[in-house]
Task: structure prediction
Amino acid sequence: MKYKQLGRSGLLVSELCLGTMTFGDKGFWQVMGSLGQTAVDDIVRGAKEAGINFIDTADVYAEGESERLLGQALKNTGIARNEVVIATKAYAIVGPGVNDRGSSRGHLFDAVAASLKRLQTDYIDLYQVHAFDPITPVEETLGALDNLVQRGMVRYVGCSNWAAWQLMKALGISERRGFARFETIQSFYTVASRDLEREIVPLLNDQNVGLMVWSPLAGGLLADKAVDGKSAPQGSRRASFDFPPVDRPRAEKVIEAMRPIAKAHGASVARVALAWLLAQKHVTSVIIGAKSQDQLKDNIAATDLTLTTDELAILDQASALPQEYPGWMIARQSANRLGGTYQAPPPLPPRS
Result:
């Protein structure tokens, strides 16, 4: 297990992060999993023994049960609080009131207090805004988060599912006002869906912001043994919850490219997909979820799978994004400036 800096902070986190969407059986989240306390204890213990020190949850997962089960698991397994980095999130609807949501100062203060109680801890290592709030001014959100940091309730802050311009605006405000800045963004990213590379990844590299990857297996799509590009196998998560959206023809192309690589390494396609992410320099930590010890062990085994340069090139080519403006113009200008060769994007397919 490797450890990386969280953004530009001095905090080190494992390259795999234990996701907790499978913890609890309340509400909509049952589709992800419905692990009870005993199973949660086993998963948390197994992850820690494998070297994972980073755990991600949210106040909305299983209507708060995920946080409660995690907090109790740390007590039950005897894992010291300072041995793990706990990340949680706030924004989503957590009650019937009109203010039981969003990223206003009022809601964030209420939400962090509730999370601390459920987690049975005095502080949260990484507190993330789960989505962009179109109503609350960004200054208000950042000011509230900075206040939580100053009070010692939160140590670092991050965001999730923000656009590049939103994140850059927040970083500018934090620098100007002296607020604690976003050290991470948590985003959807996978070898089968590389949209993040258009705008967000260049921003992360420029501003030294860490990337936490959610749904690295594309909602279970890359964990399936066989995918026909139209329907998920019976019993898979995709069969009942087809999310996040993925370009199926491109995903099938990527899966076909991964199968011989997986066979050559004696590994699963899922493990190859995780290994590809771990090889990306802009990735800080990949969030893995598990319903069983076998699934957890297979995911963790990705840390021991090193793809060759040729194998990475095959996957990069199979999963490459079609060039869009201004990307192809930027590539052309950069090639001219650096004296390289510019390759024009392929023509768009004819309209049907």
Summary: Residues 225-235 have pLDDT under 50 and may be disordered. The radius of gyration is 20 Å. The longest strand covers residues 154-160.
